[in-house]
Design a protein that fits this description.
Elements (H helix, E strand, L loop, with lengths): L2 E2 L15 E6 L3 E7 L5 E8 L8 H19 L7 E6 L1 E4 L4 E5 L10 H9 L3 E5 H12 L8 E6 L3 E7 L2 E2 L14 E2 L8 E2 L1 H4 L1 H11 L7 H7 L5 H9 L3 H25 L3 E4 L6 H15 L2 H6 L1 E4 L6 H10 L2
Parallel strand pairs: 2-5, 5-8, 9-14, 14-15
Antiparallel strand pairs: 1-4, 2-3, 3-4, 6-7, 9-10, 10-11, 12-13
Length: 327
């Protein structure tokens, strides 16, 4: 079922105002929106993946095309759709315009997806990773307006960072800048290192929580587990309902994240870490991140850096990638 804004929502004015499209491939939904030339979100909706789209890259391509064409048709009367941006939970090579790595979705590395979508839409198409997309939205319309050196942290289907230095989004040589999920941490301080993403992506937070429930049967999540399972949103909801295990799992996630970002704070003398991803998780992640980072970072570097929640929610990557496509 496609979820859309209410027709009476003031954020969704007449279709004739649209100019750029944004598509964000989330962990469980395709998020789609249109913005005007100033970056204002005109319409936003999300659509669950079809079962076949999660198994086959061509099926997922067909679903993206059908979803975007519907918006193009809605706005076609004025002929004012100028570009489209697609945001991916993974690594995008900006030179070849290929998706070289992606989390929880079919592998696109063997097909020229950019050419297929450009031809299908009849529009200029930009590919970008989801953290860079959301970071650009925060830079232009969110908490990071006016900030020079900062990092946007995205915890979701993948774990990634958008890095802004001197007020400009950084991509690195090929576009892989910000792959913080590939950094190694020692979560148990045992000398055994693991990739950060293997501990703190949404899927792995669920895995760790499920493992913990083998020892702790008092959590409300035990009941959900017995009824067929739970997801990251369920853990966040349980934490807001004062479930001690759920709160602990999110706080430990914040601690693990700080093991990686502390060195980045010291290396780049950042002024801000902006925590994105699921809005409900931020109040649990941020205090734990700050506590651990304060222990791992020099006092002068830590004093320079604020750790703050993002202003924007699930629409951030849609807005950001649409804006980037317009440049």
């Amino acid at each position: 079922m496609i979820q859309t804004n209410s027709p009476n929502d003031p954020s969704q004015p007449a279709a004739t105002q649209a100019s750029h499209l944004g598509v964000d491939l989330g962990g469980r939904h395709i998020r789609i929106g249109a913005i005007d030339s100033t970056g204002k979100l005109l319409t936003f909706r999300r659509e669950p993946y079809l079962p076949e789209s999660l198994e086959n890259p061509q099926a997922l391509t067909a679903q993206i095309v059908a979803s975007v064409k519907k918006i193009i048709e809605d706005y076609a009367a004025e002929g004012n759709i100028k570009s489209a941006g697609i945001s991916f939970p993974g690594l995008v090579n900006q030179k070849t315009r290929r998706v070289v790595e992606i989390s929880r979705l079919p592998d696109f590395s063997g097909i020229d997806l950019h050419s297929e979508l450009s031809k299908a839409f009849g529009l200029p198409v930009l590919f970008e990773n989801n953290a860079n997309s959301a970071a650009y939205a925060e830079l232009m319309h969110g908490v990071a307006q006016g900030a020079g050196d900062w990092l946007y942290l995205l915890i979701g289907a993948n774990v990634s960072a958008g890095i802004v230095l001197g007020g400009k989004l950084q991509r690195g040589k090929s576009g892989y800048c910000g792959a913080i999920g590939h950094m190694s941490i020692d979560p148990e301080r045992s000398g055994d290192s693991v990739m950060l993403e293997n501990m703190v992506s949404a899927e792995n937070i669920v895995r760790r929580t499920r493992d913990r429930l083998q020892r702790d049967k008092t959590s409300s999540l035990s009941r959900l587990g017995a009824m067929g399972g739970f997801n990251y949103d369920d853990i966040i909801s349980a934490a807001h309902n004062e479930d001690d295990l759920a709160k602990m799992m999110l706080q430990r996630t914040g601690t693990f994240i700080a093991m990686a970002i502390s060195d980045v704070i010291s290396l780049l003398n950042l002024e801000m870490i902006v925590v994105g991803g699921a809005p409900g998780s931020r109040q649990f992640l941020i205090p734990a991140m700050a506590e651990e980072a304060s222990r791992r970072t020099s006092p002068v570097s830590f004093a320079d850096c604020r750790i703050v929640p993002a202003d924007l929610g699930h629409e951030a990557a849609v807005i950001g990638v649409a804006m980037l496509s317009a440049l």
